[in-house]
Fold:
Amino acid sequence: RKSWRSRFLSPSTSSANTPPQNDLLRQENTRESQRSRHVPKWWKIRLFRGMINDVKRRARFIGAIGWMRGIIALCLLLFICTLPTLAFSLDMFTKTDMSYGVNEVLLASVLGSVVFAVFAAQPLVIVGVTGPITVFNYTVYDIMTPTGTNYFSFMALIGLWSLVMHWILAITNSCNALKYVTRFSCDIFGFYVAFIYLQKGIQVLTRQGSAEPFYLSIVIALLVLVVGYLCGVAGSSPLFQHYVRVFVKDYGTPLTVVFFTGFVHIGRMASVSLSTLPTSKAFFPTKDRSWFVDFWEIRVSDVFIAIPFAILLTILFYFDHNVSSLIAQGTEFPLRKPAGFHWDLFLLGLTTGVAGLLGIPFPNGLIPQAPFHTASLCVTKVVADPNEEGAAKGHVTTAVDHVVEQRLSNLAQGLLTLGTMTGPLLVVLHLIPQGVLAGFFFVMGVQALEGNGITLKILFLLKDSSLTPASEPLKQIKRRKAIWAFVAIQLLGFGATFAITQTIAAVGFPVIILALVPFRTFVLPRWFRAEELRVLDAPTASPFTMVSVGGNFGESEEELAGAGGSGSGEWRGG
Structure:
């Protein structure tokens, strides 16, 4: 039986452009997989082993740079990182009494992008400010500010405690537990993030006052949603030439934001006073303070009160960032370079501590945007449609041939984001109406829902079964009620997570997210048949990607050996 890796690296899909490292890696995997393996007991923790293996795996690929494809991906990456950053800065600016503004959020994105582009084992992950950390930040503000505690000093302590916790998790190889993370919990978390986006858009509109500004903001937000969504639809349709579709799909939404920023100044709309994105001086914090936080100017009791908040932050980042990394290295991408979850978690702890000292939001992996960077680096080829029948004979489609894995695009995106903190560009950003940002929230939310596994299962259940293609995997399940039950459980998990976010206990939502993993591992197999779970749920990443953590849950010894690893997460590629 061929493993995932051997299928994608077979001679039929290889080409003359395949890097020589790939052939060497495959030969070594074949040779090393024949050796005997010893899986240590779970309580025998070999400190630093996961991080050392991560560095060894990536060391041979340091010199491989795809310059041209990286430049192409850069433009898309800059837009999909900067626009959500601006939207979240508006939300935190309002809910933290101007503690975090555009400059703080932009600098957080720069910190994450540059550090991970240069030092990460997997530089494909997009690192920036996310919706969940926005909720975390303003909830901590609501809890601690009434007590008289300095907010920035307290957040710095949270960051420093979390740094220590991240490093402990990385050193003790805790990322090996990622083998138990499947699409079940990832889809629930993605569903939650999508609704957070939609909620943020509505909240922005409710702050637009009354009469003309309020109604015009609603109209603009809906227009941004419709046009931005149609750009995505057009990009996936058979209309126009291929390069036109790719351009519309990748850059349609950013250009929509640009267009409607100017659209509000046409005709009678120019007389309506719309609220715009608040900005501050170039390279200065929003509030009158220095970039370095005096974290020692705080009560001793607050030093220890910060510990439970740091635990919750660490749980959130452990799941959020690693899931983002898994999605960026999803099974749909034929990656050649190995992952490095342990080392990247160590780096995430470093950026968390530094962000706390600088008084900026903590950056981590972005969920909805996770696959966009990798997808923009994919090189496709035209192949025959495998599902063609009858009149469709001869129809062709495109398939991913390989991914240009490089560090250039992420690094350049971080440096260009730093450039947006200059005076002239801040003036331009200040022109963006808040209604446009609300519409952008809607676009992100709808697009995230559209590709979510929960949404796809619901659509399958609502479709006429006689009109559903025979190739649909869910049709393999004989018990239709099993699909209903699985979706209902996922919606309950989402509901619990979203509900707690609406309360003062919102900082506790990472606990619910993390609890979904053992629930899937130990409870769902009692309620569903094994063949049903194989269709309803699936590993988030390929066996090749999961070598770093010992393979996917339930993966056979042969599949893991073919991917070049061992059950303990040890590299077997030489």
Remarks:
- The CA atoms of residues 116 and 123 lie 6 Å apart.
